[in-house]
């Protein structure tokens, strides 16, 4: 039996504390060291020395690291680990801008290291089941994917707006669910809270496979909503990631002889509805299991840094569209 992987964590803030809890309980992994120049405000790592930086984690002899520092510091921290030959799971988004994301992804690929991005929504049981059912052909051809992500303002966010903090989840999961990257986006945003960055955005898009998308995201709503709707030729799947529920609405043939005024209508009507029973495992735990397995050799269930780079490009396209009032085409460049 192989020895446990030695893991390190840098960043013990609001998200880092949850990473610490999961790493400490993860089978076949030993959380050997943690780091945060601000200390451990949430008591996430009791009994452990709080190291000052990435270099100190490397000196502790780790196999892989989880990076949960603010987005502005992702580049420097991730490149430090890449240079030292340490596999890395970086919290979303991969980097603050496209150039930094390209640099990080390229560094890990050239070094032959496992690099992943922490898009926790992909590991929600509802979306995992949704992706599996779509892959099995339950919906047939996919026509449209819509998401709604709304709620109150998170006081923890100070460095980015709602697009980089929240909409990045929807852009990633949509491309993943459809298994097709974005081709173009058009967006409108507004600022209503008095902050410098945008706090509401409405974005539409088209994936390379022709699927059209729509995303409504804000942190100014007095209720919380996390919904993904995928509509295809055989019906719709609706995933609620707050409750981890997945519901299927089947298409039914629309009879044309029962109502004279509808005789010219051709389409679908309401069919059967099924809500599936799912095993509700904590998404962050599933994410950590997937990255552990990737370091062991099975990288089939991680969000790769190349995917994370595409999402950063899409995020920047959304911001450019909202700023300039135009449709933005998303260009892919191979920075390897």
TrEMBL record:
Highest taxon above the source species: Bacteria
Annotated ranges, domain Gfo/Idh/MocA-like oxidoreductase N-terminal: 6-119
InterPro entries: Gfo/Idh/MocA-like_OxRdtase_C, Gfo/Idh/MocA-like_OxRdtase_N, Gfo/Idh/MocA_Oxidoreductases, NAD(P)-bd_dom_sf
Start and end residues of each Gfo/Idh/MocA-like oxidoreductase C-terminal domain: 131-330
Gene3D superfamilies: Dihydrodipicolinate Reductase, domain 2, NAD(P)-binding Rossmann-like Domain
Family: Belongs to the Gfo/Idh/MocA family.
Name of the protein: Gfo/Idh/MocA family oxidoreductase
């Amino acid at each position: 039996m192989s020895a446990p992987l030695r893991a390190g964590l840098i960043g013990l803030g609001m998200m880092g504390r949850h990473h610490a809890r999961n790493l400490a309980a993860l089978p076949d992994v030993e959380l050997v060291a943690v780091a945060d120049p601000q200390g451990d405000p949430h008591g996430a790592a009791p009994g452990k020395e709080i190291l000052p930086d990435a270099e100190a984690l490397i000196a502790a002899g780790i196999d892989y690291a989880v990076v949960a520092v603010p987005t502005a510091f992702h580049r420097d921290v991730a490149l430090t680990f890449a240079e030292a030959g340490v596999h890395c799971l970086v919290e979303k988004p991969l980097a603050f801008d496209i150039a930094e994301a390209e640099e990080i992804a390229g560094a890990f690929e050239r070094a032959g290291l496992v690099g992943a991005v922490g898009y926790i929504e992909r590991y929600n049981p509802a979306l995992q089941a949704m992706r599996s059912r779509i892959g099995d052909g339950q919906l047939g051809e996919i026509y449209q994917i819509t998401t709604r992500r709304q709620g109150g303002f998170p006081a923890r966010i100070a460095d980015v707006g709602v697009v980089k903090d929240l909409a990045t989840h929807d852009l990633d999961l949509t491309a993943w669910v459809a298994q097709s990257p974005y081709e173009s986006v058009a967006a409108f945003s507004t600022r209503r809270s008095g902050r410098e960055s945008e706090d509401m955005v409405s974005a539409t898009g088209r994936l390379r496979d022709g699927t059209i998308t729509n995303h409504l995201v804000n942190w100014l709503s007095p209720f919380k909503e996390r919904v993904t709707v995928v509509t295809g030729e055989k019906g719709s799947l609706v995933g609620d990631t707050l409750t981890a529920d997945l519901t299927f609405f089947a298409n039914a043939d629309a009879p044309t002889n029962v109502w004279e005024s509808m005789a010219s209508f051709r389409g679908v009507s309401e069919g059967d509805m099924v809500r599936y029973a799912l095993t509700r495992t904590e998404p962050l735990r599933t994410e950590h299991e997937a990255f552990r397995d990737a370091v062991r050799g099975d990288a089939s269930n991680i969000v790769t840094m190349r995917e994370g780079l595409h999402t950063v490009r899409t995020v920047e396209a959304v911001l450019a569209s909202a700023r300039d009032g135009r449709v933005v085409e998303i260009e892919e460049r191979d920075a390897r």
